[in-house]
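INFO batch 0412 | record 1 of 1 | parsing
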Amino acid sequence: MATDSLPSAFTLFESIQPGPVYRIPSLLYLNSHQVFLAFAEKRTSSSDVDAKILVLRRGKFQDGSVEWDETVELSTAVKSGYRSMNPCPVYERLKQVVYLFFNCVEDGVNECSQVLWGRNAARLCYVTSQDAGLTWGQVTDLTESVIGEQVQHWGTFSVSPGHGIQRACGTLIVPAYAYIIRYRCCLIPPGFFTKPRTFYLYSEDGGERWSVGEPLSRCGTGESEMAEIAVSYGNRVLYCNARAVAGPLSCRRPSRVEAVSLEPGRFEIVHPARQLPESDSGCQGSVLSFSCPASDQFSWLLYTHPVGSGKDRWWRHCRNRTNLAVYLNRRPLEQRHWEGPWVVQSGPSGYSDLAYLDQASTFACLHECGDRQPNERIDFRLFSIDDVLRNIEQRGRGVATSLKHRQ
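INFO prediction complete | emitting tokens
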């Protein structure tokens, strides 16, 4: 797939063979401090079961560039006998506190076995920082106090890797998903009756108390990210973009799933995003909202996800995480208004996370990539809204010219 002008990249985490492997990027930008917090999982191999500890690099943004500190291991974000996974930070503006949510999963237990036998081995945890990521407090386990008995009906669960958000009203949002057991039968493992469904955790009092929202009505949704959309003067809604998985007998590549929440904890509108194709096995993607350049009363959306090579058959696409691309939506609540893709990383690409620097009208993207495999390194890129508009409009003109020639 052809690419336009590519924003320059800087490698933050590089896997070494033999040695540590870094996966699952997560990015947070603190406007008040002009500081980036870039998180990842440090593993002994690319396998999920070999995750060990979360790592962090802090970056100071100044004059259009970023100066990065060395990598540090988050030694307080651990539980004995568990591995730390899926970093998902959210910033509470009033108290200036970073909540870093993550999962602690019992050592040696993989997700498939938890789902198959209906025996959850994950814990919901967080640590906090009150000095923009320089130091971190001790781990807090919310599993019993927040999830409670619901966890008995889950094969397993996880916070979604990426970032959470704070809404204009102050509510903190942390995306998550659970493998919900629909039935139990003494002769058949519960995994045969289990489907993943997206939901979110939220706090309306600055992180003192947390609640579990209702899952999406659509089954087969997993990792997600969320954004707040300003749709008219003073009116805002919560938007969700979720990973989707097709059924085993489906011959059609699934689409991402979009949802809108009009009240805390619930999604009222759920539909497939036909312009955003998903692979059969799925891949995490990132989304964020930002003010329309012409009016700060309305929001646009930006989304990143691998788009494949453009030559893949549906039965191969599940293995082809290739070409990280950017999509733009100038009418977020209307279906079929995604524009793009603009490919910003050619070759193997995987998970990604976006941040927006509103004072500089600049986007930042932290993403997995490599020369042969998408888990070779985690790169960081900066690009502007002008870059997005120019390249996506060029892409649109190219498609229109191609269609005209075919006619």
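INFO post-check: The helical segments are 111-117, 143-147, 385-406.
INFO record closed
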